[in-house]
Design goal:
Blueprint: E1 3-10, H1 16-23, E2 29-34, H2 38-41, E3 46-57, E4 63-68, H3 76-83, E5 88-94, H4 100-110, H5 112-117, E6 120-125, H6 135-144, E7 151-153, H7 159-175
Parallel strand pairs: 1-4, 1-5, 5-6, 6-7
Antiparallel strand pairs: 2-3, 3-4
Helix pairs in contact: 1-7
């Protein structure tokens, strides 16, 4: 049985921990701690400080090892550590944040070399409560920079929604 490492990264509060928990076959190993920063506390009570980890076995027997990065900029050093050896990247952006396109810029810039070597998909969470910016705004940003990645709305609580992101990523890796 082969194993595939996939990394979930993205803005704080976008649902990285929740997405991994929605599809993991094992209890998620999480490093969430009580938030102390004022900017974090405005949005949620806990925050990931190192990583999340879960597993999912595909129908063909391949095991996905799912790693989630912290969303806060100060834990950026963990992003590169967790990306080592990964075959793909899921970028989750919280559409209810103050600057979701700016958040996407940050993750695209930080993972540019990794994305060029492998692939990525972008999931936009909280579109049900915050429809702007719309998906076309994200595509326009990517298109202006010559980046072709799928951008999909996602409900991180829904296993079907998260699996859709994973399937899109696996298809890109297979045909990329």
């Amino acid at each position: 049985m082969s194993e595939i490492k996939i990394v979930f990264t993205g803005s704080m509060g976008a649902g990285k921990t929740t997405a991994i928990a929605a599809i993991s076959e094992i209890p998620v190993i999480s490093t969430d701690v009580r938030a102390t920063d004022a900017d974090v506390l405005q949005r949620k009570e806990t925050t990931t400080v190192a990583m999340d980890y879960g597993e999912l076995t595909l129908e063909d027997g391949q095991k996905l090892r799912l790693y989630g990065t912290p969303g806060q900029q100060r834990f950026e050093y963990m992003w590169k550590i967790l990306a080592r050896g990964a075959l793909g990247l899921v970028i989750l952006i919280d559409n209810s944040g103050s600057d979701p396109i700016g958040e996407l810029v940050r993750y695209i810039d930080n993972f540019r070399e990794f994305i060029n070597e492998t692939s990525a998909v972008i999931g936009i969470s909280h579109m049900d409560t915050n429809p702007e910016p719309d998906l076309q705004s994200y595509y326009s940003y990517l298109q202006e920079r010559g980046i072709e990645l799928p951008v999909l709305p996602v409900d991180a609580r829904s296993s079907d929604s998260v699996v859709m992101l994973i399937q899109a990523l696996l298809a890109m890796l297979e045909f990329g």
